[in-house]
Amino acid sequence: MSEQTLEQKQKKTKLVLSNVYNLPAVSQVMMEVSNLLDNPTTNTAQLSAMIGKDQGLASKILSIANSPLYGLPRKVTTIDFAILIIGYQDIKNIVIALSMIESFKNKTDKYLDQKEFWMHSIIAGNASKRIAEDLGFRIGSEAFVGGLLHDLGIPVIHKYFHSDFVEIVNKVNEGGMTFAEAEVDQLGYGHNEIGKFLAEKWNLPQAHCNTIENHHKPHSATENVVLASVVHLADYMTQKLNIGAFYWDNNIELDETVIETLKFDNREKLEEFIEGYKELFEREAESLQI
Hints:
- By secondary structure, the protein is mainly alpha-helical.
- Helix content is 67%, strand content 0%.
- α12 packs antiparallel against α13.
């Protein structure tokens, strides 16, 4: 650690994050959609009309619904049909997750390509849902949100700690640190902890906060271990298959506790499982026009 102590860096970072939380970050449409979904008298037409006011939100919901990994049986061409086939609760989860990613988005620069980050997030989210369902775990909706938001801390650092973001990249490129080491050295916290801090501030369910915090080391999760393991595996698979990969995860290591947690017989069986997703990941990338 340089000049400042770890404790001083953490205090400074938390102060900035507290101010970030107070910013009016969520779009009006997303807030109104969320309120509509909380109202038991809301009907599909009202919800569809409100989502339709935000074309960016509408197009993202449709792209998720039509994702090969998301796995809906029919092509979804309208928001009405998306609501009908996905369901209110899952639509709400999607809207909340998208609103968080949108709120912390910054301009693309040479350090973070927003399109590349979005593709990584959406593939990890859709893959998490599919993996959970294929393995027989009834956590598809939670897995989708966990996968979509697992790296939330990265764009937050890029937007609100930009000079630190640059220093982190430099420390990795020139100093031989890993990104996890460089984040803590620069800010006192890793992107996983920063993401968790904001998820808690936004009152996300504890399962999501816990997954964001432990997506690189699911064995450290004190609860929702299966959820964290599924998201970790999906994240690892983007690098392993080199589809939807994000450079912050370069040299990501598999937490081998997922083998037992997700009920694979051994590492070889897990590798076969991963390879079996290659074509699906390729179709996903094509559908998202990577």
